Amino acid sequence: MITLALIGLLGGLITGVSPCVLPMLPIIFFAGTTGRPVAAGSVLVETEKTTRDLRPLKIIGGIVVSFSLFTLAGSVILSALGLPDDFLRWAGLMVLTVVGLGLIFPALGHWIEKPFYRLPKVNRNGNSAFVLGLGLGTLYVPCAGPVLAAITVAGATGNVGWRTVVLTVSFAIGAALPLLIFASAGARISQRVKAYRDHARGFRIAGGVVMIALAVALAFNITDVIQRALPSYTSGLEKKVAENKTVQGALAPAIGTGSEELAKCTPGAAQLASCGAAPEFRGTQKWFNTPGGRPATLAGLKGKVVLVDFWAYSCINCQRATPHLLAWDKAYRSLGLQIVGVHSPEFAFEKSAANVRSAIGKEQVTYPVVQDNNLATWTAYRNQYWPAKYLVDAEGNVRSIKFGEGGYGRTEDQIRELLTAANPEVRLPAPVDGTVHADSIGADGTTPETYLAYSRSTNLNGSGELTPNKTVAFGLNAAQPDDTYSLGGNWAVGTQSVTSTQGSRARLNFQAAKVYHVLAGEGTVTVSVPGEPDKTIKVSGTPYTYQLIDDPAPQRRTITLTYSPGISAFTFSFG
Question: Which of 90, 268, 411, 457 has the most CB atoms in a 10 Å sphere around its CB?
Answer without folding.
Answer: 411
